[in-house]
């Protein structure tokens, strides 16, 4: 296992690429199916690829393409997509303190934030690792944009992602990363491949209470999402669930 | 064709603005401890919500129970046995694919 070229103790960009590899295949397959859907929705060949490159957020793109294809109009398509992407506001804020450089570079780096890269880049101390974020985000972008290009040019050469079970890969990834967030930190650091390379975290209070407040945040997020899913439009349950993080504000 | 490009440009610009708003507003400043403490709980809150919505969400909102749930259950079993991430994701996809092929 070759170490990344960066000498510091923390993970490097390649660790992010490696960590995202399992889900990169699913991102590619869904990129293909987005390309196919967008083409059949009358978006042409170039626009879907440009959209994957600039918007780079699966659920919003699927929603926008479906609405356009069904004749729902520009305003409805844009509103649905923006609502689905509002969750990147709090995610971007949580990554803000780790991004470095001039404003344009930070704004550019923030574009690598998607659900999966942001989740993979979580450190044990609750902050974001920039190298993991960028490495994972770039790999996912290559898969997503490349898949879209294949989809619009070649059509459905790849099997339907659902028939391969790839739609189950995303909740599984998030569950695995959630388990890592809630599990005892000691076992994580001795077992985790990248965990051993992470810098020691500054302990702030007893770890059991920290684990408990994280568990409360997770339960709160799940309950908010479950309660709103039947009544609110797509996107709303997730952005509302981010409010469960306020549980953590009581404990400082 | 124009409607398509208006949508692509509007959604792209809005998404880029949403993603970069945090870093552009905060810059290099250190956030107040309470805000930082809340943000450190964003991951469990959002990850749990993403598990729920990705496993149970229907395409047009609401719930849809299908093979994804079987895949998620298999992933949970793999996690109990401390399987690595690649295996957890693969087990989930394979289980969902098998359930779909049978059903």
Q: Please work out how many helical segments of chain B DSSP would assign.
A: 5
- What percentage of residues of chain B falls in helices of 4 or more residues? over 70%
Rounded mean pLDDT of chain A is 86
Strand content of chain B: under 5%
Please give the number of β-strands of chain B. Answer: 0
The geometry of chain A reads as globular
Helix and strand succession of chain B? HHHHH
Unreliably modeled segments of chain B: none
Number of helices of chain A: 12
The rounded Rg of chain B comes to 19 Å
Note the beta-strand portion of chain A: under 5%
- State the total count of DSSP E strands of chain A: 0
- For the report, how would you describe the main beta sheet of chain B? none
Count the domains of chain A. 2
Structure in a nutshell:
Chain A has 252 residues and is mainly alpha-helical. In chain A, 63% of the residues lie in helices and 0% in strands. The longest helix of chain B has 25 residues, at 2-26.
Description of the structure:
The complex is a heterodimer of chains A (252) and B (103). Chain A is mainly α and 252 residues long. Chain A has 2 domains: 153 residues, no CATH class; 48 residues. Chain A is globular and about 55 Å long. In chain A, 54% of the residues are buried. About 8% of the residues of chain A have low confidence. Chain B is an all-alpha fold and 103 residues long. Chain B has a domain of 38 residues. Chain B has 5 helices and no strands. In chain B, helix 4 runs antiparallel to helix 5. The model of chain B has no long low-confidence stretch (mean pLDDT 93).
């Amino acid at each position: 296992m070759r170490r990344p070229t960066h000498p510091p103790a923390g993970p490097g960009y390649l660790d992010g690429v490696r960590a995202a590899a399992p889900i990169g295949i699913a991102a590619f397959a869904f990129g293909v199916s987005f390309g196919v859907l967008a083409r059949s929705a009358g978006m042409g060949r170039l626009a879907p690829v440009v959209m994957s490159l600039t918007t780079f957020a699966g659920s919003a793109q699927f929603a926008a393409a479906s609405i356009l294809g069904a004749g729902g109009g520009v305003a409805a398509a844009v509103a649905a997509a923006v609502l689905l992407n509002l969750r990147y506001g709090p995610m971007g804020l949580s990554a803000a303190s780790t991004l470095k450089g001039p404003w344009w570079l930070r704004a550019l780096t923030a574009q690598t934030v998607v659900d999966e890269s942001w989740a993979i880049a979580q450190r044990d101390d609750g902050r974001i690792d920039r190298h993991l974020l960028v490495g994972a985000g770039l790999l996912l972008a290559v898969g997503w944009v490349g898949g879209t290009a294949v989809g619009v040019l070649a059509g459905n050469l790849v099997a339907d992602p659902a028939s391969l079970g790839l739609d189950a890969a995303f909740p599984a990834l998030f569950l695995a990363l959630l388990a890592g967030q809630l599990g005892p930190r000691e076992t994580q650091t001795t077992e985790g491949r990248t965990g051993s390379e992470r810098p020691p975290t500054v302990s702030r209070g007893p770890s059991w209470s920290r684990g408990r407040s994280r568990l409360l945040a997770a339960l709160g997020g799940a309950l908010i999402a479950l309660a709103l899913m039947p009544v609110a439009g797509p996107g709303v349950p997730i952005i509302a669930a981010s409010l469960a993080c306020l549980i953590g504000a009581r404990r400082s | 064709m124009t409607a398509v490009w208006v949508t692509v440009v509007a959604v792209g610009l809005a998404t880029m603005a949403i993603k970069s708003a945090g870093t552009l507003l905060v810059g290099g400043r250190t956030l107040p401890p309470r805000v930082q403490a809340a943000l450190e709980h964003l991951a469990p809150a959002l990850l749990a919500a993403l598990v729920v919505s990705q496993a149970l969400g229907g395409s047009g909102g609401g719930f849809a129970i299908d093979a994804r749930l079987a895949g998620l259950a298999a992933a949970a079993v793999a996690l109990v046995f401390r399987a690595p991430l690649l295996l957890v994701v693969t087990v989930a996809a394979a289980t969902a694919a098998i359930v779909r092929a049978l059903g």
